[in-house]
Amino acid sequence: MSADYTEPLLYAPVDVIELSVERTHTQSFVIHVLLRPPAGNHPAGGGITPLTTATPTQPHTTETVTVAGRAVRVLKGGSGAPLVVLHHSTGNPGWLPVYDKLAAQFTVFVPDMPGYGQSERPEWARDPRDLGILLNFALEKLGLTGVTLVGFGFGGFVAAELATMDHSKIKSLVLVGAAGIQPREGEIMDEMLTGFIEYMEAGFRDKAGYQAVYGEEPEPAVRELWDYSREMTARVTWKPYMFNRRLAPALAEVRTPTLLIWGGQDRVVPPVCGQQYKEALPNARLEVLAGAGHFVEIEEPDRVAQLIAAHARQA
Amino acid sequence: MFIGYFTERPYQDPGSGYFGATGRDITDLGISNSTYDPKLGAELYNRYLDEKVYAEEMGFDGLMLNEHHSTPFCMGGVLNVEAAILARITKKAKIVLLGNVLPIWDDPLWLAEELAEIDMISRGRLVTGWVRGTGRESVAHNAQAPFNWERFQEAHDFIVKAWTTPGPFRWEGEHYNYRYVNPWSRPYQQPHPQIWIPGVMSRNTVAWAAKNRYPYVMLATEMEPTLQSYQYYTDCAKENGYEADTQHRSYLFKVHVDETEELAEAAARKYIQGPSNPFLEGNQGTVRSEIQNLPGLTSRTQLLPTVSSFAAAQSRGRTAEFEKATGKSADELRKENAADFLGTFDQQTNKKSIIWGTPDTVIPKVREVLEYLRPGSIFFWDGDGAMDHGDAMRSLRLMGEEVIPAVREMGKSLDLQGPFERDTKTNQPIEAGA
Question: Which domains are seen in chain B, by residue range?
Fold first, then answer.
């Protein structure tokens, strides 16, 4: 068909929203929002509007690579062997404390996955596998080999898809609370049927953990990023939601050493999925952090960084 | 002037606790169908069909049906079944579907066949109308929300082609693929039934309707933003090189007439005493915005002036956009004055959101609406909420005896020509009986 039915983007996503993280004196951290000068007609209007004063923690830089004609933004910091992190379905919140810890030993790359945050949308993408294809090319364009690939939640789903495609660049794989496999018992929590607070709170072990990061009332731009990210998620994993029956059979050939990390109290992706990944992958080990929730890398950054580093050394 | 009749066909269950003056609030997609009583459903479906037949007898030009899913406020999940029955048991009135939710159809060829069949059985009385649906509909039939608008447009183009292009042909689209399109049914009306587009808040849909010269039906929106939205249609029409007129403007509003003012008030209060309905101001229930406003379902920014009406905004899960448009805080309003926020019966009476009374008091109010908005077609929304069969039938009789004749005269004196009097595509008069 020659007809163009596409609707203009809901927001002008590129160069709009920067979330950054401030460490507080209690060692927790708070997500802040900076509205950048919009590239397009963003409803929030122009000008730099720091809603709160953000204090960058470790220095990190931003790079952009073009994949299949679309810009992919990558945050980069630290030094050492390459480590690539794929974010949750809720978008890339910026440079997290766990990245600081990893940056001491690795060069950490955190792309906004295609269609999320400030990476341009591949309108044709219909499946997390499509994002895996694009990110595999992104790694190639960044010139990375011997990569430790880490995926959180939905990012773990994409990382697992990517791992089925290419063994040459991926030295080791870490899936943290990863979606992608239909749980034997229970269901993956449906972000399409829940509001921001309900969904994000469920990702933490308790309400206090959520509030420490997002406060009593999340900033409108944080909600906006969530809404925008949720749209991309809905474009690639609506039906079935957050799993792919074609993934687990292919994982049987993925010999990449894999570490599976799960919060024992993960209410978003049931811990049984960790067990199922372990059964599907020929070379995987499962670490369950009792008491932690889905956002285990936020709740226990030291432990998660330590596990990842040890796994990467052994691989 | 085209005058139609509408009710949402609520599932009225006095034993449910969600019904009557003290009925509990319903949370959108929040109650199980385990309480659904099919025997009650049988009575209600038959009652609503009987009322439509009587509406035709009383002189209505159109019998309007709509569609919602997984909710007690509207039993029209499969409105094409009701339409097919009306096609057979009525004789003159147009059967106006406002409308089929196009994006939730995975197989729009099936819809093209159904509608053609209804048009044939009714011998050319179908008015087909298509909507994008709210989040509830996408959730209920699991239609991928971010592709709602794409699917709407592609399904429209596909159905029109299936109706107008001799088959067989192949269709390889973005969302629909067919190797053999050759339905063994064609619409009775050639080239195809009139297409009307109902809506509340999406600017994109208005612009698209104007581009296609389809009448746009504003659904029970407040008067001033309705007028502004018509103006947007008019502006879009100009951009497309034509003048929009009354035949392009349609309006649905709540009107109940009764034998006495007391009876009228008692019945009209029942508008807001049925099962909660996000589209019925005053009894909207709890709307879960994250569902109604699914990611990517509609543009977050391309909204009509109706967003400044809280009831309309809330029904679409748009309270954030309402706040942006008005500078008011939804939460503060809720805390301070819930009744005011939800639209009490008296407030709705004052702003003519609900028009009620005897024919003598109702007719001048209807005239005010027509003078202000100048629609060429209207629908009276009645018999809804907790109104019973008797309430509906009394009103229908008095509409037939007094209101409809008076409104026809108004239509003439105000030159309000509908889409069956003046062609929306050419702006030329349509011959009577054509």
Answer: 2-413 (3.20.20.30)
